[in-house]
Amino acid sequence: MVTGIVFHEEYLKHEQSPTHPERRERLAYTMDQLMEEGIFDRGDIKILKPFKASLEDVLEVHTEEYVRFLERESRTGGGIIDWDTNIPKGVFDRALLAAGGAIRAAQAVLDKEVDNAFAMVRPPGHHAKPYIGAGFCYLNNIAIMVKWLLKRGFERILILDWDAHHGDGTQEIFYNDNRVLYISTHQMPLYPGTGFPHECGAGKGEGYTVNIPLPPGTSDEGYMMVIEEVIEPITYEFKPEFIAISAGQDNHFTDPITGLALTARGYAEIMSWAVKASKELCNGRLVAVLEGGYSVEGALPYTNLGIIAAMAGYDISFIREPETYLEELKWRKREGAILKLKENIKEVKRIHSKYWSCFR
Asked: What residues make up the domain containing 44?
């Protein structure tokens, strides 16, 4: 297997402020970690150079009014979208490069240049709606990539969004589309306050949005329960032709702005499942696109390493948490999380039994 890594130095230049959670070190430290581990010295890891997404591809997702606003404000900087998303100078071009990085990853997989790919891009995208950015996001990278795939004849695409925050932008974009199955696991309560099980799509897309809220303290055990009881049955019934992952690493137990308890090994196990599913259902076609993850000085680089190792088919048994973090993991886990999660799973199955035979 060959795994592609989309990266460009320009991604490190995006900065809202030196203390903002979504800052350059998120990616810079990951690249340092990968270099130290010798990942790029192997023949089965390939660096892919991104290109800017075309305006035509961006306008498949976003309104022309919003795109022109973002382009205009980006020339001078200083504009504001919301309380945690300002518009730095030059962000429009970098957002185009991030969206183009996602397309580049999909293109490399379709052309069989690589087997699967991880678009390690910034800024992230899954909160961006057609008409406005939000939550550190400007253009919805994964949605732009999926629209690009749909234009090339794909009819069934799975988006698995495992970011700790609900991808409200991605959900809204595909809410009426039965060609895209959007499955989201996310902490609740948490920003942006959406992603309830009853939000299940509309029109032709009814039943094709699946939200699985996770209580604070949900750990590896809970995530695997969700995969086994909800995600896997629906995925295998849907039979996607392509799997796209919104890969947010803010579920990790050291993340400063969330309250979940996933480990780096847990991330690797989830990606191993996704790789296996892609091989069995869609000839291995899988692309992950980086979203959140803010444990910059802590676990984020090691978590990304675990994900890449799983994508490349390496032995993931070596993925372990540093001893200094284990006490925090004990603190972050909550005994009642599994009981609440079981209730949530039961509700998701009840709602979606109307649409999916696997729950009847």
From this structure: 3-359
**Annotated catalytic residue 127:** yes
Contact 2, 40 (CB under 8 A): no
Q: Cβ contacts of residue 231 below 8 Å, gap of 6+?
A: 160, 183, 185, 212
Token reading at 190:
């948490």
pTM above 0.90, yes or no: yes
pLDDT above 70 covers what percent of the chain? Answer: 100
What SS3 state is found at 219?
strand
From the list 127, 166, 186, 252, the catalytic residue is: 127
Q: What is the rounded (10 degree) CA torsion for 198, 201, 207, 208?
A: -120
Query: CATH no. for residue 309?
Result: 3.40.800.20
Q: Is pLDDT at 275 greater than 80 in this prediction? A: yes
126-151 residues labelled b (16+ CB within 10 A) or e (exposed): bbbbbebbbbbbbbbbbbbbbbbbbe
Cβ–Cβ under 8 Å, residues 42 and 5 = no
Looking at the structure of the chain, the number of domains it has is 1
pLDDT recorded at residue 302: 87
Residue 40, phi then psi, degrees to nearest 5: -80, -5
